[in-house]
Amino acid sequence: MKRIFWFMGVILAVVGLLFGVKVGLDWQSSQQKSAARMTKNQDQTLTIFNWGDYIDPTLIHEFEQKTGYHVDYETFDSNEAMFTKIEQGGTRYDLAIPSDYMIQKMRAANLLEPLDYHELKDLQEYDPELMNQPFDPGNRYSLPYFWGTLGIVYNDQDVAADELKTWNDLWNPKWNQSVMLYDSARDVMGVGLASNDDDINSTNMSELLAAKGRLDALMPNVKAIVGDEIKMYMVQNEAKIAVDFSGDAQQMLAQNSHLHYVLPQGRGNMWFDNMVIPKTVRNKKAAYAFINFLADPTHAAKNAEYTGYSTPNVGAKQLLPAVVKNNPDFYPSQQTLKKLTVYQDLGLDWTTTYNDLYLEFKMNNHR
Amino acid sequence: MKSKQSIPYMVPYVLWIVLFVILPLLLMLIQSLQDIHQQWTLANYANFFRSGTYLKMTFNSIFYAFLVTVITLSISYPMAYGLSRVKNSQFWLLLVILPTWVNLLLKAYAFIGLLSQTGTVNQFLGFIGIGPQQLLFTDTSFILVASYIELPFMILPIFNSLVEVNPSLPNAARDLGATPWQTLRRVIFPLTLGGVRAGVQAVFIPTLSLFMLTRLIGGNRVITLGTAIEEHFLITQNWGMGSTIGIILVVAMGITMYVTRDRKKRGKR
Amino acid sequence: MKKQSLLMKFYLIVVFLLMYLPIFYLILFAFNRGDYMTSFTGFSLRHFATMFADTRLMGILLNTFIIALLSSLVATLVGTFGALGIYLLKRRNLQNVFLGLNNILMVSPDVIIGASFLILFTMAGLALGFGSVLIAHIAFSIPIVVLLVLPKLNEMDSALIRAAQDLGARPYQVLSYVILPYIWTGIMAGFFMTITYSLDDFAVTFFVTGNGFTTLSVEIYARARQGIDLSINALSALMFLVSLVLVIIYYFIANHKQKGSGKHKRATVNQQLGGGVQ
C-alpha cells in the first residue's frame, strides 16, 4: 500500500512539473503581449478573431503604432468553430471575419451588433457591386474584407488554356484520374449544380439528385478529395487539375509558375469574408478604428498583396499591379459576376441533405 | 476474504462499467433511432439497407479489412515462425514491438512522402526505368499502409502461441518420419490456431476504423465504415445516421468475434 | 536444413527492413536542409530548431504527456481494484459477466468508442477539451489494466491469503502486505501499457476534443492535412527516442518476472480473451 502511495506521489509530482513547464511556456509566449497590456488598460486592447494567416502582420503593427491600441489576434479554421466559440460566450472578440452564409446564420442567432454608420469612414471605397448582398441586405451588420470565387486551377504542362472553360470541361474523359476536389459538401455539390445550370442554393430535391448523378459521372476523373493539402499537391505537380477557391489558387500560383486559375463560364459561386462586430464585443471604438484603418486604400492594398485575395476596396485595387487588377479570373467583369451566386444558409434540413448526398457521392467511388 | 469484501473495491470499477461501457452504447442505440430533429424513426436503418451506396461501402470496407488481414497473416506467420527459432528471440521481438510505439499518424505521414508523384518510391521507379506511377490515393496504397501498420499486431500473438508449443511434439513428429513441411502443417499450425485467431481479431476490427488513412493516404477515394461514422459525427453532424452505422459495425464486430471464437476452450470452461 | 534457416534469416531481415524503412525515412528527412520530403539536399538541424521554438507544439507535447500520465494513474487505480473485485467474486458466471463487459471496450473499434463518448459527453453537458479527453483516456485504459492485473491475481496461490488470515491479518493488511506486493509487476505493466496507449491514441481524442485543446496525434493529423512540414519529422525523431526509452523501461519491468506473454495491448487482450467471447 505504501508503495502505491509513493508511486502515486511520484507520478503526480511529474504531472505537476509538466504542468508547471506548460504554464511557464504559456506565460513566456504571452509575455510580450502582457507587457504591452501592463502599460495600457483593457480599453486599449482590440481582440480580432480571424482565419489563420489572413492578414499582413505588418498592418497590425502599423495599426498599433498609429492608434495606440494593442491588438490580440486570434484565429479559427472553420466558420462552424468560430460560431461555436462566439455562441458559447466567455470570449471577448471585438471583431470577427466570418463568411457569407455564416453571417446569415449569426444574424438569425442574434450574435451580431448592427454597425453604426456614424462611426464608419471611407465607405465610398467599398465597391458597390460587392455590397448589399442577400446574406446581409443593406450591410447592416457587415462590411467586406476579402472576396473571391470558386474555380479551377490547372497545370499548363498538362492542360491547355482552352481545354477548361466551363465546369462541364471537367467531365472530359481526357482528365481521367486527374482532378482534385476540395473536400467540402457545398462546394462540390455546387459544381454539380452549376454544371447542370441549376442554382447552387437549390432546395429542389430533383435538382439535387441530378447534381449528385452528375458528380457520380465525374468520379472516374477524380484523383482525390482532399483538404488544405490540395495546395501542396498542386504545387508539387501531383495532379493536373484542382477545384478550389481563388484565394488558395493565388497562393499556389505564387509557388509554381505552371499553375493557372480559371473562373469557369456560367453559374458559379462567389464568396465573401466580411468583418462583423459580434455580441462578445468589449471595445467597439477600437473595432471601428480597425475597420476604418482597413478602409484606407493603401492599407487594403497592402493586405491584398500579402494574402493574394481579391480586395473589395476600389481605391486599393487601383494600387495593385496591372497584371493582378486586370486579371479577369481574379477580378471578373460585372457581367461575369452577375452569374455568380453567394451561398445561403439553407437551414438544418437542407444542409443535412447536401451533406448526405455529398457523402454518398464520396462513398460511391469504385473504379 | 469473502466475496462481500469485494464490494467496496468494485464501486469505482462498476461505476465505470455502467457509465462508460453500457451507457455510451445505449445512447448510441437511442441516437440511431432518431432523426436530426430528435424524432423517433427507423429511417436511418431503412436508409442504410435500402441505399445501395451504404451496403456497397460496407461490403468494400469489410473486403479491405479482409485483404489486410490475409496480407498481414501471410507475412506474419513465417515471420513469427522464424522469430521463434532464432537465438535471442526476445530481443528480436522487441524490434517487432518498437514500431507499434511510434505514433500511427507519423507512420501514415511518412507514406505521404514516400508515395507521392515526386516521392521516393516514384524516384526509384523512374530510376530503374519503370517511370512514375500513381501510388497515392489508390486502394492499393490504402491496403499497403494499413497492412504495414497492422503487421506487428499479427506477428505478436502468433509468436506467443508458437513459443508455447511444447517442443517435444514437433520433435516426435520428426522422429516418426514427418517432413518439416508436414510437421509444420499437421502439428505446429493446428497448435497455434489460437494465436492466429487472436491476430485476426487484432487486425480485422481495427482496420475497419482507420479513417485517418482513408483521408490522408486514400484521398477520400477509399471510404470505410470508420470514415462514414467519422464524417457523420464530425462533419455532416448527422449523428443519427452515424450511430446507425456504428451499431451495425458493433453487430459486425460481434459476429466476427463469434465466428473466430475458440470452440475447444469454450467447452472446457 | 542449413539452407532453409539461411532463407529464414534472409526473410526476417527483409521484413524487418520493410518495417523500419518508413520510420528511418521519416527520421532521415528531419535532418534535411531543404523543405521537402522528396530530395535530401544536405544536413541541417534547423527543423529541430524550428520544432523547439514552436511553443504551441511544445505545449501540445506537454498536454499529451500530462493526459497520458494522469489518465494512466487513475486507470491503474480503478483497474487494479476492479481486478481485485473480480478476483474475489465467488460466482464464476458473475466473473465472466464482468470480464465480458470489461472486454467490450477492448474490442470496440476506436471510432465507436469516440463517437459513443461524444454522445455521452454532449448529453452530460460536459464542455469538450482537457476534461473530456482525460475522462475518455481513463475510460479506455481501465480494461487494459484489469486484463494485465487479473492473471497475476489468478496466478497467486490462495493459500497465501488464507495463511495471512490465519495469522490474524486484517483485510487491509492482507491487501497491503500480501496481495499488492505479489501483483505489483502486473500493476506496473498495466501502467506503462496504458501510457503508451494514451500517447498513441488518435481516433478517440479526435472525437472528444474541442475548444482548442489538442494532443500530439491530433496535431500531427491537422498538420499533415496542411502538407509536408519537416518539423513533424524532427518531432518523430524525438518521439522515436522517447518510445525507445519507454520500451526499455517497460521491458525491464515486464521481463523481470513475467516472460513471453503480454507485450502489447491488442495482443495481450486477445490472449486473455483466448480468442473468444466470454
Topology overview:
The complex is a heterotrimer of chains A (367), B (269) and C (278).
Chain A: H1 2-29, H2 31-39, E1 45-51, H3 57-67, E2 70-76, H4 79-88, E3 95-96, H5 100-108, E4 142-155, E5 179-182, H6 185-195, H7 205-218, E6 222-226, H8 230-235, E7 241-245, H9 246-255, E8 259-262, E9 268-276, H10 284-295, H11 297-307, H12 314-319, H13 322-325, H14 334-339, E10 340-341, H15 347-363
Parallel strand pairs in A: 1-2, 1-3, 5-6, 5-7, 9-10
Antiparallel strand pairs in A: 4-7, 4-8, 4-9
Helix pairs in contact in A: 6-7, 6-15, 7-15
Chain B: H1 6-32, H2 43-50, H3 52-85, H4 89-97, H5 104-115, H6 120-127, H7 139-164, H8 168-175, H9 180-191, H10 193-207, H11 211-216, H12 225-235, H13 239-259, H14 263-268
Chain C: H1 2-30, H2 46-53, H3 55-88, H4 92-107, H5 110-124, H6 130-155, H7 158-166, H8 171-200, H9 203-208, H10 216-224, H11 230-257, H12 265-273
Helix pairs in contact in C: 1-11, 2-11, 3-6, 3-8, 4-6, 6-8, 6-12, 7-8, 8-11
How would you sum up this structure in a few lines?
Chain C: Keywords: Cell membrane, Membrane, Transmembrane, Transmembrane helix, Transport. Chain A has 367 residues and is an alpha/beta fold. Helices cover 45% and strands 16% of the residues of chain A.
What does this structure look like?
The complex is a heterotrimer of chains A (367), B (269) and C (278). Chain A is an alpha/beta fold and 367 residues long. Chain A contains 15 helices and 10 strands. In chain A, helix 3 links the parallel strand 1 (45-51) and strand 2. The longest helix of chain A has 28 residues, at 2-29. The model of chain A has no long low-confidence stretch (mean pLDDT 89). Chain B has 269 residues and is an all-alpha fold. Chain B has helices at residues 6-32, 43-50, 52-85, 89-97, 104-115, 120-127, 139-164, 168-175, 180-191, 193-207, 211-216, 225-235, 239-259, 263-268. The model of chain B is unreliable at 265-269 (pLDDT under 50). Classes of the chains: A alpha/beta (367), B mainly alpha (269), C mainly alpha (278). Chain A binds chain C through residues 1-4, 8, 11-12, 14-15, 18-19, 21-22, 25-26, 28-29, 85, 226-229, 231-233, 236, and chain C through 36, 38, 55-56, 58-59, 62-63, 65-66, 69-70, 72-73, 77, 172, 175-176, 180-181, 184, 211, 224-228. Chain C: Belongs to the binding-protein-dependent transport system permease family. CysTW subfamily. Chain C: Keywords: Cell membrane, Membrane, Transmembrane, Transmembrane helix, Transport.
